[in-house]
Design a protein that fits this description.
Length: about 120
């Protein structure tokens, strides 16, 4: 199975972009279990990003910061466009989002996952 053909992968993206972060992480975990290599690490990064944003939504800023940094480390090993999405843009947005939280500023708009060009 490839990510491009995985309904679960695409459903997770839809949940993430709808700010349904818990649901996105649940759906992606099922896809992650069946994945290997770079796809597995990539999916782990997406799952961690979703859980980070879920933690933030429940007021757990420390957990959100920790997980978003782990997500960024996993996603940084991927090409700028991978799995049909713009990983580079997601990484940049997650970095800005984490920096705002660490400095005590209001978090910017939640990151979204954009399709590759």
């Amino acid at each position: 199975m490839t990510l491009a053909s995985s309904e679960g992968y695409h459903r997770g993206i839809r949940h993430f972009n709808a700010r349904e972060f818990y649901d996105a992480h649940e759906v992606w975990e099922d896809v992650w279990r069946e994945s290997h290599g770079m796809e597995k690490r990539f999916l782990q990064g997406l799952i961690q990003a979703a859980v980070a944003l879920h933690h933030h939504s429940t007021g757990n800023v420390v957990g959100a910061c920790s997980l978003v940094e782990r997500a960024r480390r996993n996603l940084a090993g991927c090409p700028a466009e991978f799995g049909g999405i713009r990983v580079g843009e997601l990484l940049a947005t997650l970095g800005e989002w984490r920096a705002a939280l660490v400095s005590g500023e209001t978090a910017p708009v939640c990151p979204v996952i954009a399709a590759a060009r």
